[in-house]
Amino acid sequence: MTDQDIMNLRERVRERLDALGETLKLKKQHAALSALRESLNEYDAGWVGFLEERLAGETETGESDQEVFEALHGRLVSLADGFSEFARHHAERPCGAFKARQFNAALRPLRDLLAADAGVSLPLVSEEEQNTYSDVSLLLCAYLGFSASYAKKHFDLKYDARGHEVTGRSFGYGRRA
User: Fold this and answer.
1) Cα gap 92→110, rounded to integer Å
2) What pTM, to 2 d.p., does this model score?
3) How many Cα atoms are found within 13 Å in the side-chain-facing hemisphere of 25?
């Protein structure tokens, strides 16, 4: 990714955040939409900051592939966590093209990383079709699964089904000897 690509991406993210804020201000009556808007703003602001650091060359001092992966995976987990409750209550509600573009902006960098390793082309949220929230939720689960496999294979990290790192064995659950 060139410096110009990063600058273009940063501008697109900021434009989308502004458009998202204006769109969702009109729909503030629904608390879940407001929470999702705040989550997207927070995660996208963090992502823009990460890209700006890369552009400025501050992270050229040995940033590993693992750090890049963890940043992308963390963004995916945050997005999935914020979206899951909303999708549970409104599973069959259609997801519009604007939201599809927001999800794709978050998924595209991780898809490129995972596709190069797995040899499988993961889909993005369709901007032409009317996806439901349950469709998007299933897609996010697929990304979490591939991401967990990638982490185990390359960095010996273990993640649970929701994408959170498993740090050790939990006692008190499972079979007793």
Assistant:
1) 26
2) 0.61
3) 6
